[in-house]
């Protein structure tokens, strides 16, 4: 048994390590960029709502439609449909760079809704209190809405990472690299189910690690605020 494991590590160890690295890189970078785009959109959605601090029905409607339309497109279809755009932006549609563009595009609207939901959970009396003290809209956004919803935002970031982790496996179908690509190329195309099994186990472990980190960080922030 030990000899079999040693031989497996010798044959596929480096490949699997590279797959883990590529998966983490593409997912982490895509999550970060998705928040750069989605966080402001989520803030605009909540502040421009009918009961927001600065209601703007046309803006809220347009943003809502854009978010809903992009979210309704299945990722595997989006992945293929925007290949020309991906090549225009990063110069290739393959590998980690080629996967990041579609991952960001599909995740940004998701992040916007996650942020909107997190901010909507903030007690309205806190916003009213800030307004009564003469706080500006910008101060309310940063010091009340974002600050009070920080634990929820952290959990949302972990959820986004895990969701993109799954999408990155789909990206493996078009040569994006990572554990998904390894599972497909070796497990499905070459019938090497041992490699596929190990790739799946590594995916499960990584997801559990991210979820645990997200829960611990959000709980500590929540405890600190109280």
Task: Describe this structure as you would to a colleague.
The chain is mainly α and 226 residues long. It has a single domain (1-221), classed as MetI-like (MetI-like fold), CATH 1.10.3720. The protein is built from 10 helices and no strands. The mean pLDDT is 87. It is a multi-pass membrane protein. It holds the Pfam family BPD_transp_1.
Key words describing this protein structure:
single chain; 226 residues; mainly alpha; MetI-like fold; 10 helices; 0% strand; elongated
* Radius of gyration using CA atoms only: 21 Å
N-C termini distance: 52 Å
Number of extended strands: 0
CATH topology: the name is MetI-like fold
Q: Biggest β-sheet: count, sense, barrel?
A: none
For this structure, what is the CATH homologous superfamily?
MetI-like
SS summary, helix count: 10
Task: List the SSEs and their pairings.
Blueprint lengths: L1 H46 L9 H16 L2 H7 L1 H8 L4 H26 L3 H9 L4 H12 L1 H22 L6 H11 L4 H33 L1
Helix pairs in contact: 1-2, 1-5, 1-8, 1-9, 1-10, 2-5, 4-5, 5-8, 6-7, 8-9, 8-10, 9-10
Give a quick summary of the entry.
The chain is mainly α and 226 residues long. The chain is 84% helix and 0% strand.
